[in-house]
Write a structure and sequence with these properties.
Two copies of one chain form a homodimer. The longest helix of chain A has 28 residues, at about 385-410. In chain A, helix 14 packs parallel to helix 16. The first copy, chain A, has helices spanning about 20-35, 45-55, 60-70, 90-95, 120-125, 150-160, 165-170, 180-190, 205-220, 235-240, 285-295, 350-360, 370-380, 385-410, 435-445, 475-495; strands at about 75, 80-85, 200-205, 225, 245-250, 250, 255, 265-270, 300-305, 330-335, 345-350, 415, 425-430, 450, 465-470. By secondary structure, the first copy, chain A, is of the alpha/beta class. A seven-stranded mixed sheet of chain A has the order 3-11-10-9-8-4-5, with helices on both faces. A four-stranded antiparallel sheet of chain A has the order 12-13-15-14, with helices on one face. Chain A starts with 20 loop residues before the first helix and ends with a helix. Chain A is elongated, with a radius of gyration of 31 Å. In chain A, helix 10 (about 235-240) links the parallel strand 4 and strand 5. Helix content of chain A is about 40%, strand content about 10%. At the A-B interface, helix 1, helix 3, helix 5, helix 6 and helix 7 of A face helix 1, helix 3, helix 5, helix 6 and helix 7 of B.
Chain lengths: ~500, ~500
């Protein structure tokens, strides 16, 4: 449908068959006006004339004109004729495509003449925490997704959706769905020694969001946040985004080096299973931390990220359970036990902080998605969560055993797995002068994914070693991975 | 099971039948130690002796002792005997309950000797955006939840869950599930005149989170953010939490009062349907805003919160579609069209901002829950979303009509509904000297929920009136509500 009107050269865009005629006409005219081909003040053909030219009904043309008048593109009336509006500024006439997304340098704030960023906006940096390539041995932080009972989850979800209530469609308090908060408080009390009432539990999307919330609520730009190095990079990112300086927390001969913590407002620790080294913090160390925190007034943020997976002995109770003064904020998540894209976790806080966290959530995402919370609560209360967890513990213990045996048999003296007994991954020390970075590069060439421990250091250095995930891989993948890793490391040793 | 050991008075807590014996014993001993009834250095009975006393197997006692040694509560060996650890500080011995959640004054930051809040932590205030009481006429911001096709949603969800892929369980990029971002870009382009590529769309939990993200990325403490008064209180909360001063944006005779915007870094508007007055911003006004923004370098945040629901004419295209310089950030949500507890919406941004938003999400919730995103994408792509929207548009148009007729018939001269033609609620002006606050109080006594428009003013005043939601109520509820409101208002007029 490309025609000239009688009054002037007007070439309208083709009509797509699916578009209603009146809408097509108003869009085509709007485009002509925006492109400047219909100048301000131009008189349009009469509706009758236009209808005939474009084989439209007159009503269609009238509708399109009325729409454009309502929007301000056209003006005039049936008697005096219809004109392109004179109030259109030059600016509208120049159609520019949005600037391309390409060609921006990664990791740097973009320069813009128009959008001025806040200090936070300039500071915040991408935490590259997603990976779209298929998983392969020994990617860390991955559970065995192929064993997740998706059909069972679907059944629980369908059951919940069939009897969904108006109130469940409507929303909940910022801190989350009360039955889930109760289930979390009960579960953490029984299995982790966490002491809390459901009112102290907030449902968040996971540990990362918990870190970010706590950082925002407790840290001012310029404040110090302390954590162990090597440590969890997502925490470094969250603290730096808050404008904090991230300083190392360290121990010497079992003693906390308090001098390093002098200015700290917040200390972040992973006592159940140090990230990435996998060690558990001893009771004596925990007590020192609590004692220091009581004297200094700094808060402790305990990230209990994967201590559900303990393969020997009962889990050591959480640091939070030893806290008698309300100094410890505790966080953990369901994402690793169930599936990472779930985005549900918890933040357990001292009573003083409840109102602040509630306020921060209320002006942000308002609350976590409610149907998902209800399905998860059902999954926990009906015992599926516990059963899945116990099953995964067995599977992961077996996989860790396979990794340990294979490495001992194939890589003795070259790679030594630390004596971990929990988690989804382990640290391993490199021997014979090998370095983590070159080892990881050589492994990648043989299709094996390992992370040098040094990459988790934001300060200082760590003994050369690798981070190896084992939970997501079947025994034969683990054995093949160790074999290929062996070839890679031996290649380095021969150089 | 309350017994004395032979060596000393040790009264252990009763064992719950469900608790494994070894776990019960270690927990009971830990509790005794923490309460100070087993003092540091105390020698425990031999495992054999203890087993006999408590009718346990010796292995059970050994396990419990080993666990407590691993945790640091006990020390010693089989040969030398087992002792309560000497490194326990006094602090651990005093069990205090966490401070009560009660007795805190609402709305004020709590005082704490220990947790020092950041400036943000002290600033942020609860935005009371949830309501647990059953809905009744004329609560605003509510869709007709009873008409939401929950069974259909469940079917789409079940279908998606049955064929769930590993990658869907794993996660996605911070900006969201690509097919949903594509569906959003397509939908907004076709129905709202928004010009964007899918790469410019971030999936967030809704408008509120979008406001909060933008406020954080663009506003420094002390900056000015401008918006109309009366306006959306969730925006005021988000901007104030960012430390911004919220200043009024106003018009005089169709002209933007630029003097009031001098210091503004960000202008927040609801051009499709002003909140709460319901008017649409004219093209001339939109162009003035864009022109001012281009000159001043301030960003415009367009909240297109419920313009899907337009009952007369086509929706006026979004301000974003007129933007040629990348000044406009656009947000809207699925929560009102589908159901509020869903928590999925979108933020459409100029290319310059993409990387910053991506970074902010990556260190926060990482990404919106993926299964929900996939189900929503299916719901949109399969046409259910469009069908539901069209159906709701008819229903709401009918309900608005009922409200307009009832008010005209019953309350002429006392209450006058503004000429709105979109949204889930409407403003109504009070006549004969009635005031919003007293009218709302009188209405509440008759079981009718209305909000005085004056409550939405953060600055200045507005003509006396009420905000009335109509979408969530059946015609007979609307008529009954108008009747009761009439009785309430007449009662005030007689006073």
């Amino acid at each position: 449908m490309t025609k000239k009107t009688s009054g002037f050269d007007l070439v309208l865009a083709e009509r797509n068959d699916g578009t209603p005629k009146s809408r097509w006409l108003s869009e085509a005219l709007r485009e002509e006006i925006a492109r400047g081909r219909l100048a301000a003040g131009t008189r349009l053909p009469a509706t009758r004339e236009m209808a005939a030219e474009y084989a439209l009904s007159r009503g269609t043309v009238v509708n399109a004109f009325e729409q454009l008048k309502a929007e301000g593109y056209l003006e005039g009336s049936a008697g005096s004729g219809t004109f392109v509006s004179r109030t259109l500024p030059e600016e509208l006439l120049e159609v520019r495509r949005p600037r391309s997304l390409k060609g921006q340098s990664a990791g740097r704030p973009p320069r813009s003449a128009l959008l001025r960023l806040s200090s936070y906006g300039r500071r915040v940096e991408l935490f590259r925490n997603f990976e779209i390539r298929p998983s392969r041995a020994f990617r860390a932080n991955l559970p065995a997704l192929e064993l997740f009972p998706a059909a069972l989850w679907a059944k629980v979800a369908a059951h919940r959706l069939r009897r969904v209530s108006m109130s469940l469609l409507l929303g909940c308090e910022p801190m989350g769905y009360r039955p889930l908060r109760e289930a979390v408080a009960g579960y953490l009390g029984a299995s982790r020694g966490v002491r809390c009432e459901p009112g102290q539990v907030a449902i968040v999307s996971g540990v990362q969001e918990a870190l970010e919330l706590v950082a925002r609520l407790l840290l001012n730009p310029g404040d110090e946040a302390c954590m162990e190095s090597p440590g969890y990079p997502g925490a470094v990112s969250a603290f730096r985004a808050a404008g904090a300086r991230v300083m190392p927390l360290s121990w010497k001969g079992g003693k906390l080096r308090e001098a390093g913590l002098k200015g700290a407002r917040l200390v972040y620790v992973t006592p159940g299973h140090q990230f990435p080294l996998g060690t558990a913090m001893s009771l004596a160390e925990r007590l020192q931390l609590l004692d220091w925190s009581a004297r200094s007034g700094a808060a402790i943020l305990e990230d209990d990220y994967d201590s559900e997976f303990r393969y020997r002995g009962r889990p050591v109770p959480a640091l939070q359970g030893l806290d008698r003064r309300g100094q410890v904020i505790y966080t953990g998540s369901f994402n690793k036990v169930l599936f990472p894209s779930l985005r549900l976790g918890y933040l357990v806080m001292p009573p003083e902080l409840v109102e602040r966290v509630e306020a921060a959530i209320s002006i942000g995402n308002r609350h976590a998605p409610l149907l998902e919370q209800a399905v998860l609560a059902d999954f926990v209360v009906e015992g599926h969560f516990g059963r899945h967890l116990r099953r995964m513990r067995q599977v992961y213990a077996e996989r860790l055993g396979v990794l340990q045996e294979s490495v001992a048999a194939r890589l003795g003296g070259v790679l030594e797995i630390t004596g971990i007994d929990a988690g989804l991954q382990t640290a391993a020390w490199l021997g014979r002068g090998l370095e983590g970075e070159s080892a990881a590069a050589a492994a990648a060439k043989r299709g094996v994914e390992v992370t040098p421990l040094s990459r988790y250091c934001f300060r200082g250095t760590v003994r050369e070693g690798l981070h190896l995930g084992f939970a997501a891989f079947e025994p034969k993948e683990i054995r093949a991975g160790v074999r290929e890793l062996g070839v890679a490391l031996e290649g380095l040793l021969r150089q």
